[in-house]
Amino acid sequence: MQLAKRVMFMTGYSRGQEGVYVAEAGEDLLRIAGARGVPVGLLEELNPGVGRRDSLQTGQAVAVPSPHRHRGTVVAVSNRQAGPCLVAIDVCSGEVRVLEAGACAWSSVPVLSPDGDRVAYQGPDGRVAVLSTDGGSPVPIGRSPSGFVSPKWSPTGELLAWDSDGVTEVLSASGELVARIEGACPSWMGRGRSIAVIRDGRAVLVDLGDGTSVQLEAVLRPQDQVWAVHGATMGSVYACVATVNGQLRLEVHDWFTGDRAGVDVGSDLWPWSIKWSPDCTMLAAQSGTQMGMESAVTVTFYQVDAAGPEIRPVDSVTLVSDPRYAGLSWSHSSDAVALSARVAGGGAYAVHIVELLGGVHRITGRGDSVLPDWGPSR
Questions:
Q1: Residue-wise burial string across 206-219, b where 16 or more C-beta atoms lie within 10 A, e elsewhere
Q2: What would the pLDDT profile of 297-356 be if each residue is shown by its tens digit?
Q3: Are residues 179 and 233 both part of a single domain?
Q4: Closest of 179, 85, 42, 117 to residue 371, by C-alpha
Q5: 31, 51, 72, 262: which has the fewest C-beta neighbours closer than 10 Å?
Q6: Same domain, 56 and 134
Q7: What is the count of structural domains for the chain?
């Protein structure tokens, strides 16, 4: 299958100039929403400073959402209040709720639990906190890690894991220490009874029940290096990014059968960005690049056949974005990802939905919104 490439500078709407409505005198957002069949709240979100009943002028441009079928909740870090705060965005209606203000930082990486009822993130004091998406106060758990971390929920939502100084800590959602494992870049395998880490340049699988560990890919030569491992939640398949014979490769392995497949990737691919789709048939990865004078992020979609295994790139899109804040998260329907990219003109960062072999849809417009994570509807 030939790789499809899409390169676009985000105009703030969908592809090209779609999503711009030219108003007539006396129209307002409420009337436009009714005529186009879109939530008025989303029109208000995409047009900061315009109220739903404000009278528009002839020729005034109004940003209107491009139609999509996606659902769920996206959490992100935003500056809608005096400082960075956590917000929850309804993908369908565009409604934005502030979940937490004051106990958040731009470096916080929010991660929704599998059922979408909690979000874990690193607070400004460095400790990981758990917050209900229904509101309330964040509950700090564990000790303060060294540096920035991105907590990872187990597939059942019972446990959290992150690493600090080469040691992975596994805790319950209420803060009880379950395990402390030598190794970095943790990734859950299967249903969460084991966890993969990087130890001395190799991927190691650790059983959380008895603490035993096994090296996953024994075929690498001593000079080869594994940079990141990404476990699938179904079967015994995992992905890893490794330098093999001097070439950076994205590989898919079945640790039970020993089968493997891989594809060469560019040296600008970020090993830690790889994300499995919920149905474990796709991988998405990010690469850093330049678009003129701007920093840019390229998202590449890879189709995976675990029975082979087989992996091949099928789609690629480049957006203007700061790699530190882009984020990457799959929809529960496994047909799109969310990430943050710049809006032309003002240069604010907005959350966008990027469809596999499809369109790009902006879902935020007020202030900056970065590091999105996509979960189910609540």
A1: bebeeeebeebbee
A2: 999 999 998 777 789 999 999 999 988 899 999 999 999 999 999 986 567 899 999 999
A3: yes
A4: 85
A5: 51
A6: no
A7: 2
